[in-house]
Design goal:
By secondary structure, the chain is an all-alpha fold. It has 15 helices and four strands. A two-stranded antiparallel sheet has the order 1-2.
């Protein structure tokens, strides 16, 4: 019996345990935070049943990926890149609008697939261009061209995802021994472009103030009729100004209609009273928009307290460090770079989500990986875990005589 179970759950056991805890927390907290969905659908079980179904599909796909030899991942890269590029183009023109932006195409999010495809391509390029002195400068040029194209396509509708992806690509180049001079040049250029972009957003976007004379329906029509580019600039401007507004606003003057997400997230955190109100006992889930997705970490704090919040954060830290341990044991650089990139994607996105929930970053709309309710994102994240497990069991390991010798795993060509 134990042998049969072992044959199913292959790969690193620590990764499996982290994944199990994240899934269990997801089921409990999404069930609790989906009160708004149950009210709208008049179906108490429907939303959580759909979420469990999505996780189940994700686990099945993950098991398939886990059983694939990691060397075959290279064969997927060209197809994944072409598919991602085409769908990112199509979503701009015929995609379905989600929160004022075209983000889904035929029910899935092309940006989620594009993130993994770019990391897969970068890992392969860096591994092919390894030399004794470092990475061939040509690799940097190719990676930057592809990354800029993908980030521009993604950033048009989801700026935070583009920023997250670019950051992970940059860290991977550092791990992959790209020249510090080239990385410094990128940092300087990106800093200048970011400053210029913020200036343009503040200049072009209008800070929206709700007109009390307009009904909610009239305000919605007014927003829909606004120029698409101006609408996105306005959204970004409002988030920037709200985040950097240092004025202390007493609770009696706080406008919950205007800053509902931030306000109710803060109330949820304070309501935890450190120890939490207990699973399923959240009050703010009924008032907090996207409580089951973008702001689920605030609900976790409210229900599980500071201890629960720290535990969830440590799961992502453990995932990143355990993946780095697996990568350090790989003899070849491709699998090591690939899983480090995937782990960085998950951990960085988690940091974005948690920082937004506690008010350390402007609202970005990034779900909490493997915990937030999702469709494409949940399944894709399960594929990432499957790839990490595949590398842990099929990647060629370093010789025993090399163990204990301090060296960067990805330095091996």
């Amino acid at each position: 019996m134990n042998k049969k179970i072992t044959n199913i759950f292959k790969g690193d056991r620590v990764i499996w345990m982290i994944f199990f805890f994240l899934c269990m927390i997801s089921i409990v907290e999404v069930f609790s935070a989906s009160s708004g969905l149950t009210y709208k659908s008049n179906n108490y079980i429907g939303p959580i049943a759909k979420h469990i179904g999505t996780i189940t599909i994700g686990v099945l796909v993950m098991l398939v990926v886990t059983n694939i030899q990691c060397r075959f991942f290279k064969l997927v890269m060209p197809v994944a890149m072409v598919f991602s590029f085409v769908t990112l183009i199509l979503v701009l023109f015929i995609g379905d609008s989600v929160y004022e932006a075209n983000r889904t195409l035929f029910g899935f999010q092309p940006s989620e697939i594009a993130k993994g495809s770019l990391i897969l391509a970068e890992a392969q390029i860096l591994s092919k261009c390894q030399k004794d002195s470092g990475t061939d400068p040509l690799a940097f040029k190719i990676i930057m061209i592809v990354t800029v194209i993908f980030c521009l396509l993604i950033g048009n509708e989801n700026l935070s995802t583009a920023v997250l992806l670019f950051g992970v690509v940059y860290i991977m180049m550092f791990i992959g021994r790209v020249s510090l001079r080239q990385l410094g040049w990128v940092a300087a250029v990106v800093g200048g472009i970011a400053a210029l972009a913020v200036g343009l957003i503040l200049l072009v976007g209008d800070r929206v103030e709700k007109d009390p004379q307009l009904t909610q329906q009239e305000q919605t029509v007014e927003v829909k009729n606004e120029n698409k580019i101006l609408r996105r600039a306005t959204t970004w401007k409002n988030r920037i100004l709200k985040f950097f507004d240092s004025e202390e606003i007493p609770p009696s003057r706080f406008d919950l209609d205007k800053d509902a997400q931030v306000g109710h997230a803060n109330i949820a955190i304070v309501s935890s009273n450190i120890r939490g109100v207990g699973p399923g006992n959240s009050v703010e889930r009924d008032f907090l928009s996207q409580a089951f997705s973008d702001f689920i970490y605030a609900i976790i704090i409210e229900e599980l307290g500071i201890g629960g919040a720290i535990f969830v954060a440590l799961l992502y830290v453990a995932l990143l460090f355990r993946t780095s341990t697996i990568a350090s044991r790989c003899e070849n650089s491709f699998p090591a770079l690939l899983i480090m990139g995937l782990a960085l994607l998950l951990a960085t996105q988690a940091v974005f989500n948690m920082f937004v929930a506690v008010g350390l970053m402007p609202v970005t709309g990034q779900p909490l990986p493997l915990i937030s309710k999702g469709g494409t994102s949940t399944i894709i994240n399960c594929i990432y875990i499957g790839a990490i497990l595949s590398v842990s069991r099929t990647a060629k390991k370093k010789d025993n005589k090399n163990k204990g010798v301090p060296e960067v795993a990805v330095a091996t060509a």
